[in-house]
Predict the 3D structure of the following.
Amino acid sequence: MIGLPLSDDFMGPAVIFSRGIAVEAYALVSARNQPIAGIDDLKGKRVAVQYLTTPQNLLAERDDIEKVTVLTPEDGMNLIKARLTSASFGDPLPAG
Protein backbone atom coordinates (compact mmCIF):
# COMPACT_ATOMS: atom_id res chain seq x y z
CA MET A 1 0.00 0.00 0.00
CA ILE A 2 1.10 3.53 -0.66
CA GLY A 3 0.23 6.29 1.81
CA LEU A 4 0.96 7.43 5.32
CA PRO A 5 0.33 5.25 8.37
CA LEU A 6 -2.97 5.77 10.17
CA SER A 7 -1.37 6.85 13.44
CA ASP A 8 -2.20 9.92 15.51
CA ASP A 9 1.40 10.41 16.62
CA PHE A 10 3.13 10.01 13.24
CA MET A 11 4.84 13.38 12.52
CA GLY A 12 2.51 15.22 14.90
CA PRO A 13 -0.61 17.23 14.06
CA ALA A 14 0.90 18.87 10.94
CA VAL A 15 0.08 15.84 8.80
CA ILE A 16 -3.38 14.90 7.55
CA PHE A 17 -3.71 11.12 7.47
CA SER A 18 -5.31 9.23 4.65
CA ARG A 19 -5.75 5.69 3.47
CA GLY A 20 -3.58 4.07 0.81
CA ILE A 21 -4.26 5.23 -2.73
CA ALA A 22 -2.76 2.39 -4.76
CA VAL A 23 -1.70 -1.23 -4.57
CA GLU A 24 1.40 -2.35 -6.44
CA ALA A 25 1.84 -5.85 -7.81
CA TYR A 26 4.95 -7.62 -9.05
CA ALA A 27 5.55 -10.93 -10.78
CA LEU A 28 7.88 -13.64 -9.49
CA VAL A 29 8.12 -16.15 -12.35
CA SER A 30 10.06 -19.40 -12.61
CA ALA A 31 10.35 -22.34 -14.96
CA ARG A 32 7.84 -25.15 -14.41
CA ASN A 33 10.51 -27.50 -13.11
CA GLN A 34 11.67 -24.93 -10.51
CA PRO A 35 8.63 -24.00 -8.41
CA ILE A 36 9.09 -20.91 -6.26
CA ALA A 37 6.61 -19.87 -3.57
CA GLY A 38 8.39 -16.75 -2.30
CA ILE A 39 11.56 -14.71 -2.06
CA ASP A 40 13.24 -17.13 0.34
CA ASP A 41 13.00 -19.85 -2.34
CA LEU A 42 15.37 -17.77 -4.49
CA LYS A 43 18.30 -18.49 -2.15
CA GLY A 44 21.24 -19.87 -4.14
CA LYS A 45 19.55 -19.18 -7.48
CA ARG A 46 20.34 -16.82 -10.35
CA VAL A 47 17.43 -14.39 -10.76
CA ALA A 48 16.61 -11.78 -13.40
CA VAL A 49 15.55 -8.59 -11.59
CA GLN A 50 13.97 -5.66 -13.40
CA TYR A 51 15.92 -2.40 -13.16
CA LEU A 52 14.49 0.44 -11.04
CA THR A 53 11.68 -1.62 -9.49
CA THR A 54 10.72 -2.47 -5.93
CA PRO A 55 11.81 -6.10 -6.51
CA GLN A 56 15.33 -4.84 -7.28
CA ASN A 57 15.30 -2.96 -3.98
CA LEU A 58 13.95 -5.99 -2.10
CA LEU A 59 16.80 -8.19 -3.34
CA ALA A 60 19.57 -5.56 -3.21
CA GLU A 61 20.96 -6.65 0.15
CA ARG A 62 20.43 -10.38 -0.34
CA ASP A 63 23.91 -11.84 -0.81
CA ASP A 64 22.45 -15.35 -1.06
CA ILE A 65 20.74 -14.59 -4.41
CA GLU A 66 22.66 -13.97 -7.66
CA LYS A 67 20.97 -11.06 -9.43
CA VAL A 68 20.98 -10.32 -13.18
CA THR A 69 19.59 -6.88 -13.99
CA VAL A 70 17.15 -6.64 -16.92
CA LEU A 71 15.29 -3.67 -18.39
CA THR A 72 11.92 -5.27 -19.18
CA PRO A 73 9.76 -8.17 -17.99
CA GLU A 74 10.23 -9.73 -21.45
CA ASP A 75 14.02 -9.71 -20.97
CA GLY A 76 13.58 -11.64 -17.73
CA MET A 77 11.30 -14.20 -19.39
CA ASN A 78 13.80 -14.66 -22.22
CA LEU A 79 16.55 -15.46 -19.70
CA ILE A 80 14.34 -18.12 -18.11
CA LYS A 81 13.57 -19.60 -21.56
CA ALA A 82 17.29 -19.68 -22.37
CA ARG A 83 17.90 -21.36 -18.98
CA LEU A 84 20.28 -18.56 -17.99
CA THR A 85 18.28 -17.77 -14.84
CA SER A 86 15.99 -19.75 -12.56
CA ALA A 87 13.47 -16.95 -12.09
CA SER A 88 12.48 -13.40 -12.99
CA PHE A 89 11.21 -10.76 -10.55
CA GLY A 90 9.76 -7.44 -11.69
CA ASP A 91 6.71 -5.79 -13.19
CA PRO A 92 4.02 -8.18 -14.45
CA LEU A 93 3.94 -8.80 -18.18
CA PRO A 94 1.28 -6.71 -19.93
CA ALA A 95 -1.70 -8.67 -21.23
CA GLY A 96 -2.27 -8.91 -24.95
Remarks:
- The chain has a mean pLDDT of 85.
- Helices lie at 54-59, 73-81.
- The longest helix spans residues 73-81.
